[in-house]
Amino acid sequence: MVNVKPLNVRRGMGISELVEAMADTAFNARRLGEAARIYAEMVEKDAFIFLAFSGALIPAGMRSIIADMVEKGFASCIVTTGANIVHEVAEALGYRHEKGDARANDLELSRQNINRIYDVFVSQDAFEGIEEFLARIIQEMDGKMSTHEFIREIGLRLPDKESFLHIAARKGVPVFSPTLHDSIAGLHLSIYSKDMILDVIKDIRKMVDLCFQDGAIGTAIFGGGVPKNFTLQAMLLAEGFDYAIQVTTDSPQWGGLSGATLEEAKSWCKLKSDAKAVTVYCDVTIALPLLHAYLVDRFG
Amino acid sequence: MVNVKPLNVRRGMGISELVEAMADTAFNARRLGEAARIYAEMVEKDAFIFLAFSGALIPAGMRSIIADMVEKGFASCIVTTGANIVHEVAEALGYRHEKGDARANDLELSRQNINRIYDVFVSQDAFEGIEEFLARIIQEMDGKMSTHEFIREIGLRLPDKESFLHIAARKGVPVFSPTLHDSIAGLHLSIYSKDMILDVIKDIRKMVDLCFQDGAIGTAIFGGGVPKNFTLQAMLLAEGFDYAIQVTTDSPQWGGLSGATLEEAKSWCKLKSDAKAVTVYCDVTIALPLLHAYLVDRFG
Amino acid sequence: MVNVKPLNVRRGMGISELVEAMADTAFNARRLGEAARIYAEMVEKDAFIFLAFSGALIPAGMRSIIADMVEKGFASCIVTTGANIVHEVAEALGYRHEKGDARANDLELSRQNINRIYDVFVSQDAFEGIEEFLARIIQEMDGKMSTHEFIREIGLRLPDKESFLHIAARKGVPVFSPTLHDSIAGLHLSIYSKDMILDVIKDIRKMVDLCFQDGAIGTAIFGGGVPKNFTLQAMLLAEGFDYAIQVTTDSPQWGGLSGATLEEAKSWCKLKSDAKAVTVYCDVTIALPLLHAYLVDRFG
Amino acid sequence: MVNVKPLNVRRGMGISELVEAMADTAFNARRLGEAARIYAEMVEKDAFIFLAFSGALIPAGMRSIIADMVEKGFASCIVTTGANIVHEVAEALGYRHEKGDARANDLELSRQNINRIYDVFVSQDAFEGIEEFLARIIQEMDGKMSTHEFIREIGLRLPDKESFLHIAARKGVPVFSPTLHDSIAGLHLSIYSKDMILDVIKDIRKMVDLCFQDGAIGTAIFGGGVPKNFTLQAMLLAEGFDYAIQVTTDSPQWGGLSGATLEEAKSWCKLKSDAKAVTVYCDVTIALPLLHAYLVDRFG
Questions:
Q1: What is the pLDDT of residues A211-256, one digit of tens each?
Q2: Is this prediction's ipTM beyond 0.95?
Q3: Topology at the third CATH level for domain D15-299
Q4: Which of B89, C235, C263, D94 lies 20 to 30 angstroms, CA to CA, from A186?
Q5: Taking CB atoms and an 8 Å cutoff, what residues of chain D touch B254?
Q6: What residue segments make up the domains of chain A, in order of their start?
Q7: Is A45 in the active site?
Q8: D90–chain C Cβ distance below 8 A for any pair
Q9: Which residues of A touch B118 (CB under 8 A)?
Q10: What are the start-end ranges of the H helices in chain D?
């Protein structure tokens, strides 16, 4: 038996030191500490890392972290929602998300052409800029394009070279968005695409290929939804992940995939039976910066 | 001001009478009662109703209810996950989901070729049967097919004429699954499709068309994820929903779309400013049967 | 293995029939069905039943159900919060809780002397009436009184003979409120008590005594907090509960007692190792009426 | 309008710098940053601070932080559960909580005399040690004792001078536990108390007195339950808190007090209408160390 070690905080304490100490406490602090250790081991062992994230992380101010994770090699490929792609395009084009109030009057906001994402506001203008930018790309393209091919074209054309989409394109890190159509980009594709067709099945073939490479394979899943399932199901045809960490605010007892435990994933052989795995129940906006800071301290 | 009316239960009380009485209580009982009234008004006013559902409802024993909702006209179109399509195919082919234990040993289960969905077990055999069935259809098809066209072909071929997929196909009720590829069916499409291509953008065009019809338009959203967003975003180009009910176990304060309030949707003009709308925080497996029973009592 | 049985809803279906059918589905519908069966078995076997409830159930319109449960013998003793006692006094004195809006402007409400409990409003007047009523009783009493003795005095004096406090007093069903002081009643006791002293330790002795009686002993726990823990801990000195059902919206992964599983309670021997136990994750305002209706149909 | 500022993490970043940067993001990271600023302002303005905490924080390894908060003046008084008092006594007597597994077999544990608190194990031995220690104190005492007087006696006698109970006793910081009887200590009081009586109403008088002092008054509430309500209700007779921060994993939509917003508390005048207040939705084991580190960096 190992004792819970009461956590000591001291002046000027570093983030990674705190996260490390959390691993010897309990509940979700312990899980966060364990997740940090597993993520560090993935990086250390040079595992191929599928970084999946859903929820409005880009509007919420997490884009520099995602960019840095791609830049520093903490993500070998990305799987995310269409909304995160679209909002990243907005930021990379110079539009900004504003700090808003979750209790704002939504009718008032709609009259001011402001869209609300919980406590973040985004002006309708941004969507016009996105449309202009995407329409041009869509009209240039032809043939069957997977989402990762299409997103690569977006990344290459973005004026902001610090955008994670640009960095990923430059470094050859594929960015999958199996639900790209479930976003404003989908509406734009429905309006402007002529010669190109979005081929989401092509994405699956690529994902499955990536699951068959040599060496250790891991995944870091932030939030649930399609990014989580699409990442895990790609392993159904392969050997199972060696590592998996999951940060979520959903719970197992509702029966859905978003809240499902990583143990459940073992029954499906999506994880190897001896995979190192841990779930942290926490808002991603809190857990992600802590985990990234931990990695940066060790590998930055 | 209107008083909270203490709820009186009596012997032999009917479900709809109880749900009606709940509308005069508080918290989620009140919201459930209000949701029932709004749903009934949608049916009464002959609104076009988008029924969106996510989460493992088919494995959880809700398939007869979904089928009955389509049969009785409580759903004018359906938007659901790939997993629900796949598991419905399994049931319609005669495979069964088993009552399991959420605390089962998942390594043990994987050795027995049993896959776990919280407290439901499903044997690997079922997936072989699904593959055989789907492979044949995929190989027959050609050209660009939206998910609703492809799912219609599935529905027409199912041996079980009580399946909601068959009933929907027979009645011309479109079934959209914008994440069909995010399921076993996606893997099968990646293996067996040659001449056909799954065209998810085509689905958007059809969804948007449906949002432009005359008369009232409403939506009943069970769970979050892509089915929720895909339904709501189709309205971005049209006038907004007149009615919306949502049943979810997610919460607004995590900032994601699944837990977002219907008020927030008004800032985006996805709902009309005067739309009748209510969110019920409850497991769908409890709320859906109650709401359906309420409708059946009134319109059945 | 037993199949999940797709739930069939039909016109005029009774509540207990629906709840019974839920036991063969999954997730929380199944758990609700199982809880109903366990509760029915407790009644059938004439078990001594500790009914614990927390959360604002009385303001939420559940008082007639609680009263009926005491009247019909579905509760052999009650453990609840001070707030529920106080709000029951208000209702029994003729004050009413109003249907409010959870998004109301709270500063506006405070200016109107309206207090908000989520979507229920209660006027400041009610508290003046309660104070007048309780002050008189407090001043009459003397000596060391346990909460159940004091609450019995309240129940006997209430003008509303349908109040669960009156029915319990009449039938000799003890009502414990180990946190009576954590409510307006506590403030009143701090102001008006002279010769009496609230002796909460005396409650423990009585609770422990009740845990030592012959025959089966069970508990039905609605919500968490002190009522849950106080009920369970009384068993630490005795043999453990034979039956336990729990309805909660809290989750195990936060580590608190309110969300703790009934399995965890077995490690403490609060439940017998072979106790029949189930937890339903659901708003009590929805689950309680369903469970009570089930019992009334069978035993009413 | 103010922009969301994408969070930049760099090598060797300090905790307080990260928390400060979070205030310019969104969701619960923003709320955590705002809570840190409000807490810092309370300390800076020399406000009287009620520190309320519930949930098994002591077993979870948070005891050194609580001790340090008392030592450094971040808490002017404490309100907590009986369980936290009892488990602190165990640690201060030299017993240890062990790192356990939340999925352990609870029947197995009970056979080994191990009690489980989610993923923490505590041996039955500890409770024997606590009983011996408390029995002696209980037998020494006489007359009406409030919980804070009784807990002061405990603190003075503890061999571990680093225990928050000892530090609080030494510094004259009152520690209230209005639910002390809702813990093992309650059982011991029921067995060993002869001449003393636990007078919980006396605590209320003291709490109300503390609410009437000059200068700013604030509260930091970690978790819900009685510590939250007992702290807030003491203000019903006074002017309302000037500052309030709350960290919780409960949600408003269930209607209970634990999940209630601080806005709701304004309708009751428990907070001043212009009080600075924020709620962070996060596991306390993660948020508390971050907040404390922020304060230590600024005031340590």
A1: 999 999 999 999 999 999 999 999 999 999 999 999 999 999 999 9
A2: yes
A3: Deoxyhypusine Synthase (3.40.910)
A4: B89
A5: 27-28, 281
A6: 15-299
A7: no
A8: no
A9: 252-253, 255, 260, 264
A10: 15-22, 27-44, 63-71, 82-92, 106-111, 124-140, 147-157, 164-171, 184-192, 200-210, 225-233, 262-267, 284-299
